[in-house]
Design a protein that fits this description.
With 459 residues, the protein is α/β, with parallel strands linked by helices. It is built from 16 helices and 18 strands. The chain folds into two domains: 229 residues, 3-Layer(aba) Sandwich (Aldehyde Dehydrogenase, Chain A, domain 1), CATH 3.40.605; 188 residues, 3-Layer(aba) Sandwich (Aldehyde Dehydrogenase, Chain A, domain 2), CATH 3.40.309.10. The longest helix is centred in the first third of the chain and has 27 residues. The structure holds nicotinamide-adenine-dinucleotide (NAD). The site of nicotinamide-adenine-dinucleotide has 28 residues, from helix 7 and helix 8.
């Protein structure tokens, strides 16, 4: 606790020196972070492989490559983003020049999960630094090798007064949350998100919560099932199914459900072979606790494909479950693993019944060539974000804000949205002195009708 208090105190003192407000200062450190990441690329791959057998390809695509492209964007755009933005003035306050200034919050806390342990720890740090904050990062305790290289990279790139990494588990996170922060950025489960929100509320600290949930994938009968199966197998089993925006379950039109299952089986074998356990491209479950949790979810279900498990090796084969009971744990909790339940619908009310019975999801996917069905689906349901005819890749466009709604989170980030998330928007009006209409000053007698006219015409 003393160490934490000491780090925060030093960061607060450093923040007051105003150095982090200089754009050139921020850029220097963003560039040195980029250099460190490039120098350590192989060590990051090795760490991710050791932590959960993630392939170098998936590690680059979903961790290192994403981080480097976000860094390139920030380095290119920071000056523009940081400039006070002039907005149109109101005639009611004439004469004035009006601006929005972006102001760093101060000393911020970032708590990261294990499933994309490099990306989801470092991307918020990049945005926090870009916006001029100082940061304390707590990476996940479940990916010790990645956390170690992450710590090394950050220590090489930043002084501790600017970014400090504090490793540890729940106890450490609890101690960190007991402190007063200027902003908290949390990525993890909805359950822990509530704990973070409660801790933040004590000090009225603003938060962004990037949480999870059961993201549906709706498939109608107007689609090319082979293409759907290809994209669905990729999006579901990428990272071993341990993706916050993976399709949690499929709800397919009843007349194509059986054909879809067949197409998925063919596709799984094509991508991972007959024994996915030996595939170099199929990751492991993060630990034995989660492996046992997934094995328990499979109990008393109708497994039509896969189902092979090895708890000692933290292995769960890509698995398809046909028509699970809606009340079963498999359909009540976020799966977060390579298990895909397939349900069917015959009318749109069946889809509504299912989606509205669950919390608002982080993502929703709809595969259809029927534009009115797509439009209705997008408008009807509340969810963080989604894709028509694919999975996951909306995460990759920095122009799209990424975040949940309701139980799947609050706030968003990526690209400029991330910079904004870590900044307070400070409104500044610069008043002219050359004229000062007397309307607003007392005595008010006889001025009300003029005031009403002013609101009507200039408000
Ligand atoms: P988690 O909530 O268990 O842990 C996340 C972080 O919180 C870790 O650093 C952990 O040490 C800390 N933590 C755990 N228990 C805590 C407690 N009681 N008090 C304070 N801190 C605590 O989540 P996880 O298992 O690491 O990640 C999986 C979850 O994260 C899934 O629900 C997934 O959907 C979600 N997720 C969301 C996003 C997103 O961007 N929205 C991204 C990845 C993962």
């Amino acid at each position: 606790m003393d160490t934490i208090a000491h780090i925060i105190k030093n960061q607060r003192e450093f923040f007051k020196t105003q150095q982090t407000k200089t754009i050139s200062y921020r850029l220097t450190f963003l560039k040195s972070l980029k250099q460190e990441i490039e120098n350590n690329e192989q060590l990051i791959f090795d760490a991710l492989k050791k932590d959960f057998k993630k392939s170098a390809f998936e590690s680059y695509l979903s961790e290192v490559g994403m981080v480097l492209s976000e860094l390139n964007l920030v380095i290119k755009k920071l000056k523009v983003w940081a400039k006070p933005k002039r907005v149109r003035a109101s005639l009611l306050t004439f004469p004035s020049k009006d601006y929005i200034y972006k102001e760093p919050y101060g000393t911020v806390l970032v708590i990261a999960p294990w499933n994309y342990p490099f990306l989801l720890a470092i991307e918020p740090v990049i945005m926090a630094i870009a916006a001029g904050n100082t940061v304390v990062l707590k990476p996940s305790e479940l990916t010790p090798n990645t956390s170690k290289i992450l710590t090394q990279i950050i220590q090489n790139a930043y002084p501790e007064t600017l970014v400090a990494v504090i490793e540890g588990g729940v106890e450490m996170a609890t101690d960190l949350l007991a402190q007063k922060w200027d902003f908290i950025f949390f990525t993890g489960s909805t359950k822990v998100g509530k704990i973070v929100a409660a801790a933040a509320a004590k000090h009225l600290t603003p938060v962004v919560l990037e949480l999870g949930g059961k993201s549906p994938c709706i498939i109608d009968d107007t689609v090319n099932l082979k293409l759907v199966a290809r994209r669905l197998v990729w999006g579901k089993f990428f990272n071993g199914g341990q993706t916050c925006i993976a399709a949690d379950y499929v709800i397919a039109k009843s007349n194509v459900k059986d054909q879809l299952i067949k197409a998925l089986e063919v596709e799984i074998i094509k991508r991972y072979g007959n024994t996915p356990k030996t595939s170099q491209d199929f990751p492991r479950i993060i630990n034995s606790k989660n492996t046992k949790r997934l094995i328990a979810l499979l109990k008393n279900t109708n497994i039509v494909f896969g189902g092979v498990t090895d708890k000692d090796q933290c292995y769960i084969a890509p698995t398809i479950v046909d028509q699970p009971d809606l009340e079963s744990p498999l359909m009540q909790e976020e799966i977060f693993g390579p298990v895909l339940p397939i349900l069917s619908y015959s009318k749109t009310e069946d889809i509504e019944h299912l989606i509205w019975s669950l919390e608002k999801p982080l993502a929703l996917y709809v595969f259809s060539n029927n534009s009115s069905f797509v439009k209705q689906t997008i408008n009807k349901f509340s969810f963080g974000g989604g894709i028509v005819n694919d999975l996951l890749i909306h995460f990759g466009n920095h122009r799209l804000p990424f975040g949940g709604v309701g139980a799947s989170g609050m706030g968003n980030y990526h690209g400029k949205h991330g910079y904004d998330a870590f900044s307070h928007s400070k409104s500044i009006m610069k008043r002219g002195n050359w004229i000062d209409p007397s309307l607003r000053y007392p005595p008010y007698t006889g001025k009300l009708s003029l005031l009403k006219k002013a609101f009507k015409y200039f408000g």
